[in-house]
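SEQUENCE-TO-STRUCTURE ENTRY
===========================
What this section holds: a protein sequence and its matching fold, both as plain text.
Tokens: labelled as protein backbone structure tokens, with as many entries as the chain has residues.
Question of interest: how does this chain fold, as expressed in backbone structure tokens?
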Amino acid sequence: MRYLIAGLLMVGLIIVLLAGMNGTLPSGSAKNVVSEPAGQSGNLTPAAEPIRTEEPSSLPATPVPTATVTATLNLVPSATPDAPDSSAVVNATPKPSPTTETSPTPDAAAWKEWPVIPAIPQEMRAIYERGLAQGTIDPGAFSVLGDCQSESGDFLGVFEDNPELVSTLPEGLQETVTNFKGSFNRYNPAAKSGSSAGSLLYAAWNDNKEGACLYGETPVDCELRVHQPSIVFIHTGTHYETQERNWYYLTIIIDKILARGAVPVLVTKADNLELDEHINLNMAKLAVKYGLPLWNFWSSVQDLPDQGLMPNGMHLTAAAHEVHRLGALEMLDAVWLAVR
């Protein structure tokens, strides 16, 4: 009997061990087991929190800077300023400081009938004296602002380089040459082939060959500051700026000259390559507007063969060059006599 009971106990123990190894428990024991999550068979580790794919709404978006765009726009200079339309140009032009009531007002449309050398308005003396008082002009200096026909080698340099020629001049003109010695044959950044009124106000057009000009200084500003002329010829030739734009740029140049107390002298040209003569007409209109003297060079060459022009219709013949040089000296003499 004792052996029978021991055998039964051994059999029961074996059954229990076998049941545990197979993952099954006896009935009535399931309530003590924690169930696994669905789809997680054999893994009791809890699932990780899902990863966010967008920024939390509480964080502001990175602002887009605007300063860079503004700075970039401000640092880009315009090569040449655009002129306003004709009505805007007239309204924007400052009122001229000289008064001209004491002299009869000429008709600008009749500029072809004007004399070669005009009577110099008496108001020019007040401008000249103001320049002397300011210390911004040299009474022994003059300048020419213009294109290739204004460069000293083709224009007035001969009066400084050729004493024999000067000795043949009338005594009054010889005195004028002596007074302005040093201005006839010199480098001038504002007398350059191809120049127009607009390019003379453009800093990049300044060759600055002698290094006297400041960085970013226009040819006109440099010439007025360095040479300090008391009389300034505005002698721009043929170019293709519109009439309104040409007017606008010329008024800027005239105002700069007047601000320094120098006397502007406007000059007509011999050719009409622009076909409507608006360049000479602008010169005449500005002479009326400001009460300034105008040297009518155009009129002085009308009696020459082909009006003093080469076959290309632009450059002067040898005879016209002689008239050009002498006429400029006579105009310089007339202004100097009127203001001194």
Remarks:
- DSSP finds twelve helices and four strands in the chain.
